[in-house]
Design brief:
The complex is a heterodimer.
Chain A (H helix, E strand, L loop, with lengths): L8 H11 L3 E9 L1 E3 L8 E5 L6 H22 L7 H9 L11 E11 L2 E9 L3 H14 L4 E11 L2 E2 L11 H22 L1
Antiparallel strand pairs in A: 1-5, 1-6, 2-3, 4-5, 6-7
Chain B lengths: L12 H10 L2 E2 L10 E8 L8 H4 L11 E8 L7 E4 L3 E5 L8 E6 L20 E7 L12 E6 L3 E6 L4 E5 L23 E3 L6 E6 L3 E6 L4 E5 L14 E6 L9 E6 L3 E6 L4 E6 L13 E8 L6 E6 L3 E6 L4 E6 L10 E8 L15 E6 L3 E6 L4 E5 L14 E7 L4 E7 L3 E7 L2
Antiparallel strand pairs in B: 2-3, 2-29, 4-5, 5-6, 6-7, 8-9, 9-10, 10-11, 12-13, 13-14, 14-15, 16-17, 17-18, 18-19, 20-21, 21-22, 22-23, 24-25, 25-26, 26-27, 28-29
The chains are: A alpha+beta, B mainly beta.
InterPro entries (chain A): PsdUridine_synth_cat_dom_sf, PsdUridine_synth_N, Trub2
Protein name (chain A): TRUB2 synthase
Organism (chain A): Toxostoma redivivum
Chain lengths: 195, 434
């Protein structure tokens, strides 16, 4: 999912960026290899065993990652923890950094697990592709093995999901106009909510 | 070395694959890579309650004394610890091993709440502060068979529950909290006396220490108490001290109690049907749902309509219960966990589960246990995560910050938290590594 703005849309793009909404990725990984750029096309650094890895162990590591990132979330959001406001935002789960921040993961879930491959759904903020690949590598290390990233696919960017996206066959004026109309409402509500 | 007749240039895919297959495979997960059980401590260290001597007396010139440990720190123990309890400035760790040494203590020992710890400098005197986990010798009849099930600590006394030799008590007995007759002008410092209690209607399955009183729960579901009673915390119908464990009646007579809790001067009990009973101090609205008096000296049923209660925990001024559905309710006075605006309530209020990590994304997160310190609360989820909130007295919350925490906050512990014990200004947790 890649968001493009046309004309007036460009200004809306900056506003959307300032909303700091989470993006969702499907990340595929492979256990047993470690490469220099954390993906499966890089130069091999070393191979490791991975038969001891179970889905349970993976999910435990994911829980820890979520936990540490939760704290980062609250810290970078610059909200005074002593206020009632902070409590209410925390209950609704709306606390998130409103300015620049290092990549933060808001949620991780294991979708598929078939040794040596696995698939994760990651919700994150301010991330880069390299950060996601590094995350896969670190998961491998925590499980006393190693892992490389085989696939990174963005399925959601703020309010735009895969369902709103136009496949290449539909890149014509009609469909684009329709899509813009459909998404307008969503974009407006989101902007109003945050700003 | 490249042989003759081999093409030069960048390696093609087939060569890469062959190189990969030929690469050596490393194994990092050793054969004994089982999950290990560890103990983590945090909070105020100068009392010795954390059990890390280098925080109090640095053993290297570059180390500085550490008064407060704000985040969980690993404590090396000789044996696997199955039960831990935090008192007012001291800690007890117990293992259910059959070895001779089953209980270790550290921290304040001015009332011999850690037993007699012979000083190395003067063999006739005992240590007043014990800086690292030191064995507590129990006068067991069958030391190589009996197992220690649970330990509990109060302000200046401790209780040790064994599986076949009853309950051992040590420490201050000025109010009879050790279950033996009060001796006038008794000197508790450097005392060797450890008392054994066996006279109950059935096996004791849980021991709980309040500030200056002790509660015992037996297999048959009855509750015994002894110690200070000025707030009615002994629940025996009077406000005097009791020096022999006596059975409680009131609303819990004939009820099968499955859990008891206390830490300050208020007590809570949970029955097998999910009802909550309370007695003791009610100055902070802990029992205001049934009475306007500030002291209740007989167990009273608390008519809460919050569902079947599974577990209860009592703090100094606030109480918390966990229902069968996994919801957490708090009431009382102080930082209760619902933001700075909720300071006191007589009726339990629920803490939204989203604060414990519940969301549409992870809908099966439930709180599994609740624990209370003097002015802080702790909750353990079924995923092994620890959440704390309350007054951050001398860094006891373990969040890494010194500010009070007004709503549940995750403590970063490297492992799955199995249990946590809360004290006044420190906490101890048992963690299983990943």
């Amino acid at each position: 999912v890649s968001v493009l703005g046309i004309g007036h849309g460009n200004k809306l793009l900056t506003d959307l960026y300032n909303c700091h909404l989470a993006k969702v990725y499907i990340v595929g990984g492979l256990f047993g290899k470690a490469t220099d750029d954390f993906s499966d096309t890089g130069n091999l650094v070393e191979k490791t065993t991975f038969d001891h890895i179970t889905r349970e162990k993976l999910e435990r590591i994911l829980a820890v990652i979520q936990g540490t990132n939760q704290k980062a979330l609250l810290m970078y959001s610059n909200i005074d923890m002593k206020t009632q406001e902070a409590y209410e935002l925390a209950v609704k789960g709306l606390i998130r950094p409103m300015g620049k921040s290092p990549p933060i993961i808001t949620a991780v879930r294991c979708l598929q697990f078939a040794l040596p491959e696995f698939q994760l759904e990651i919700h994150c903020l301010h991330e880069t592709q390299q950060y996601l690949r590094k995350m896969v590598h670190e998961i491998g290390l925590e499980l006393k093995s190693s892992a490389v990233c085989t696939q990174v696919r963005r399925i959601r960017d703020g309010v735009f999901t895969v369902n709103d996206a136009l496949p290449r066959t539909q890149w014509n004026l009609q469909s684009i106009q329709e899509a813009i109309r459909n998404c307008q409402l969503k974009v407006e509500t989101e902007l109003e909510k945050t700003l | 070395r490249r042989g003759l007749g081999v093409a030069a240039g960048p390696p093609n895919t087939r060569q890469l694959r062959e190189a990969e297959e030929a690469a050596p495979v490393f194994q990092y997960a050793g054969k004994a890579a089982r999950r290990k059980d560890r103990v983590f401590v945090w909070g105020f260290s100068y009392s010795g309650a954390l059990g890390i001597p280098s925080f109090v007396r640095p053993d290297a010139s570059w180390k500085k004394p550490r008064r407060i440990q704000t985040t969980p720190y690993r404590l090396e123990t000789e044996e696997k610890i199955s039960s831990a309890a935090c008192g007012y400035g001291f800690t007890l760790l117990a293992s259910n091993t059959r070895d001779i040494t089953k209980v270790w203590g550290m921290g304040l020992n001015k009332d011999s709440q850690l037993g007699f710890q012979r000083s190395r400098r003067d063999q006739t005197k005992g240590y007043e502060y014990v800086l690292e986990p030191s064995p507590i010798p129990l006068p067991l009849e069958k030391p190589q068979q009996t197992r220690v099930l649970q330990v509990s600590c109060g302000r200046a006394h401790s209780l040790v529950l064994t599986d076949s030799e009853g309950v051992f008590t040590m420490g201050n007995n000025s109010y009879g909290q050790c279950g033996r007759k009060v001796v006038e002008d008794e000197i508790y410092s450097g005392s060797h006396l450890i008392h054994q209690l066996k006279e109950f209607d059935s096996e004791v399955v849980q021991v709980v220490c309040g500030q200056d009183h002790s509660l015992f729960r037996t297999k048959k579901g009855s509750v015994y108490a002894c110690g200070w009673g000025a707030d009615g915390q002994t629940g025996l119908g009077h406000y005097n001290i009791t020096s022999v464990p006596t059975k409680l009646h009131g609303d819990i007579a004939g009820v099968n109690i499955i859990q008891v809790s206390s830490y300050g001067d208020c007590c809570l009990a949970v029955s097998d049907e999910g009802d909550v009973f309370g007695w003791g101090n009610s100055e902070y609205l802990q029992l205001a749902s049934v009475t306007e008096t500030t002291q209740v000296n007989v167990p009273r049923h608390l008519p809460f309509k919050i569902g079947k209660v599974k577990e209860a925990a009592c703090g100094g001024t606030g109480n918390v219960v966990l229902t069968e559905e996994g919801n957490v309710f708090v009431w009382g006075y102080g930082i209760l966990g619902k933001g700075p605006n909720l300071i006191e309530t007589a009726v339990p209020e629920m803490i939204p589960p989203s604060l414990f990590g519940w969301s549409d994304f992870s809908p099966d997160i439930r709180v599994a246990h609740v624990r209370c310190g003097l002015s802080q609360f702790a909750a353990l989820t079924n995923r092994g995560e620890l959440f704390v909130w309350g007054k951050n007295l001398r860094g006891c919350l373990g969040t890494g910050r010194m500010e009070d925490q007004y709503f549940p906050w995750r403590v970063t512990v490297p492992g799955e938290v199995l249990d946590v014990a809360c004290g006044v200004d420190h906490m101890v947790s048992m963690v299983r590594s990943f």
